[in-house]
């Protein structure tokens, strides 16, 4: 099998290249493992999403009338059904479960926002 072609590191602003499957150079690879370790091998209860979260989630969805509150939908005036609850500041980045940090969000919008957060650390 031929060797991998070096590609730019996924860390924004990094000028180094890598052949690692993670997409990160050796300098940034360890820094980005934190997100994976935060989630890997833990149940939803261990990650803080137990019965208390279920009650809070329902409260946020009702407060926001099951309408997506993501920045893009609000800016464009798009109305989408919200099925998820989003931490405006992610828990992995220091956010809390305070009501002011939670909003109802559409599944696809939540996926986009989470993907962005993973790469804009």
UniProtKB/TrEMBL annotation:
Keywords: Endonuclease, Hydrolase, Nuclease. The keyword Metal-binding does not apply. GO terms for molecular function: endonuclease activity; nucleic acid binding; zinc ion binding. CDD domains: HNHc. The keyword Hydrolase applies. Residues 55-111 form the HNH nuclease domain. InterPro entries: HNH, HNH_nuc. It comes from the Bacteria. This is HNH endonuclease.
């Amino acid at each position: 099998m031929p060797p991998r072609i070096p590609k730019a590191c996924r860390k924004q602003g990094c000028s180094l290249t890598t052949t690692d499957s993670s997409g990160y150079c050796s300098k940034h690879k360890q820094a980005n493992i934190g997100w994976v370790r935060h989630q890997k091998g833990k149940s939803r209860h261990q990650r803080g999403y137990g019965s208390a979260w279920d009650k809070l989630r329902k409260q946020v969805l009702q407060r926001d009338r099951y309408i997506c509150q993501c920045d893009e939908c609000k800016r464009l005036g798009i109305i989408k059904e919200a099925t998820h609850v989003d931490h405006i500041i992610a828990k992995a980045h220091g956010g809390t479960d305070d009501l002011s940090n939670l909003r109802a969000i559409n599944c696809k919008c939540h996926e986009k926002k989470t993907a962005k957060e993973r790469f804009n650390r």
